[in-house]
Design a protein that fits this description.
This protein has four helices and no strands. By secondary structure, the protein is mainly α. It has one domain. It is rod-shaped, with a radius of gyration of 25 Å.
Length: 101
């Protein structure tokens, strides 16, 4: 007898396993990319982001991309601190301000 329809036959289990493995590989690649992104933003706990992306996929990527940039926030705070110091002294700085890292 011939079977009709999708999912019937001996190869359907192997196809499902292949799709699951491909999805896991794609999630691992996305997790590696998001780890690099969060590390560049100044976060140290990239393992948590990697696990989140591996288990949730695209939603974890959106979370990682929405994290604020810690390095930029620290630079802005330093600029504000230096400007307040300059304004409180009432005179222009005698030497240029050091570059921010």
């Amino acid at each position: 007898m011939y079977s009709s329809g999708y999912g019937s036959g001996a190869g359907s289990g192997g196809m499902i396993l292949a799709i699951i493995i491909i999805c896991i590989i794609i999630n691992c690649i996305m997790a590696a990319c998001m780890c690099n992104s969060t590390k560049k933003k100044g976060y140290d706990d990239v393992e948590a982001v990697a696990l989140l992306v591996v288990f949730t996929g695209f939603i974890g990527c959106l979370y990682a991309l929405s994290l604020p940039n810690q390095k930029l926030l620290q630079q802005n705070e330093e600029i504000i601190r230096l400007l307040k110091m300059q304004n409180s002294s009432g005179e222009a700085p005698s030497e240029p301000l050091p570059p921010l890292e």
